[in-house]
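User: Earlier you gave me the apo prediction for this protein. Now I'd like the version with flavin-adenine dinucleotide bound, so I can compare the two side by side. Same sequence as before, with the ligand SMILES added.
Assistant: Got it. Here's the input I'm using:
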Amino acid sequence: MGTEEAVVIGAGPAGLFAAYELLLAGADVTLIDRAAQAGGQLVKQTHKFFGSKEHYASIRGIDIRHRLEHALEKNGDGRLRTLYSTTVAGFYADGALACVKAERYYRLHPEVVVVATGASERTVAFAGNDLPGVYAAGAVQTLMNEQGIRPGNRALMVGSGNIGLIVAYQLMQAGIQVERVVEAADEIGGYQVHASKLRRLGVPIETKTTIKRAFGTNQVEGAEIWRLDAKGEGIAGSEERLTVDTVCLAVGLSPLVELLSQLSVDTRFIPEFGGVAPVLDETYMTSRPGVFACGDVANVEEASTAMVEGRLAGIHAAGYLNRQIPRRKEKIQALETSLRTLRSGPASEHVRKGLRKVGEHA
Ligand SMILES: Cc1cc2nc3c(=O)[nH]c(=O)nc-3n(C[C@H](O)[C@H](O)[C@H](O)COP(=O)(O)OP(=O)(O)OC[C@H]3O[C@@H](n4cnc5c(N)ncnc54)[C@H](O)[C@@H]3O)c2cc1C
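And here is the structure of the complex with flavin-adenine dinucleotide:
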């Protein structure tokens, strides 16, 4: 059992930047992640990031992770404690955190907590979706890019958002034939640049189409896809069989709010944010004083916005601890401007819509 000044849960881009700002403000920080190393989603992202230079565009996710870790070490000044391979399993009404590492449980009593637990992958219902060989896209990335394991030889990708397109490309890079990318919506969800790369490799991308079922005896041996009508119903007779051993689902992410829910903070269903998300004030604080949230757990978006939100949450959390930050107001204004710029493009229309909703209901 221990009393901590600031605890950051999740060492992805949002949590790393929250910790960075807390350290800059002079706070003692405990950074916890259930993974064995820092980086969150960045660890498996071998592709170069999109966005602006200021937000690490054209740098590979794995390299961004090393840069962030280096910045933390440089500014840690002996005040950073990292607890990796450690899961925060409980968040109690008295504000205590229950942590578990290698079957040992212990409690922490932080003065301030920044929750940056990211998001979880969604799935879709179809016959055979419990067969070995049906994966979520993030799991496929972990297998290929972290563990060096090929999930199969021929794949069907379900979902054409950026994650579906990028992982389909990475499957091809790993020598796995992507037979088809199917997308239920009328249009491809991700950036055209990623779709074009796939098309150049000869991978067909079909919109208004989805998986009907996966089949096989002990594992996936094939999949049936079908066209969707204007109501989103499958069109009988349009079925097509594909010979694949891997079905990869990239059908969206939802904020990982379980820890915050244990604390009974106010949440709200915002489809544009990925589902149930915590209600935050303008300082990124939840309805529970001293508990902040940022990154995908607050609003499923991108690493670039997660980093800026992490910095803002870190600065406000330091303010909650009465830590003095030089030129605090200017710093906050600059970061908020940066967030608005990141969210100004057509791809962020849903986020702007979600933010308008939050504003309307705040
Ligand atoms: C395939 C793919 C490609 C992408 N490409 C881009 C891109 O090109 N550009 C871009 O800007 N964004 C991209 N993104 C999005 C980006 O990776 C995420 O938006 C970003 O990582 C979110 O950061 P985060 O810190 O909020 O969450 P994460 O990076 O998910 O980090 C959350 C961390 O919290 C930890 N955690 C969760 N629960 C607990 C717990 N109970 N106890 C302890 N630790 C816990 C997790 O282990 C994880 O390390 C991509 C995402 C994917 C999946």
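For your comparison, keep in mind: The chain has a mean pLDDT of 93.
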